[in-house]
What does this fold into?
Amino acid sequence: MVKKYANKLIVLRGNSGSGKSTLARELRENSDKENKIALVEQDYLRRIVLKEKEKSGGDNIRLIKEVVKFSLFHGYDVILEGILYSPRYGSMIKNLLKMTPNHFVYYFDVSLEETLRRHKTKPDSHEFGEKEIRSWYRKNDLLRVEGEKIIRETSSLQTTIRKILKETGI
It folds into this structure.
């Protein structure tokens, strides 16, 4: 029997530079201050905590799942954000969605050209460049789960914040 969690799981996925991290932090900052919200960042767990390269079957996939489950179990709503490439992370995310009936999935649909433009404005832009971004870029990397919503590159940060806060009720 699969454990079911009552809290909310909000998944923000998309290519590098699409605005996921900024949006995740703004959502938590602008949410109902009474809510306990855990922010689970793929990059932080993979790159900082584990210092792991991106690879199939990486330890970070299990760590992400356990951190999300821990947070849900302890009464937190969870914002999970990252590139979360579907062939590597899809089954883990789908498993979490089954455990969390009150879930919301958003995919940031940003063109490669816009991704490259946004990357230049990031504080960590010196850590990797255009060559890496081009190799990581995946067009339409949808999970194809019920209720998955697409955030277009034309949606402003403030519009997207208002939309997700309203839809999720966090």
Summary: The chain has seven helices and five strands. Strands lie at 9-14, 37-41, 77-82, 103-109, 149-152.
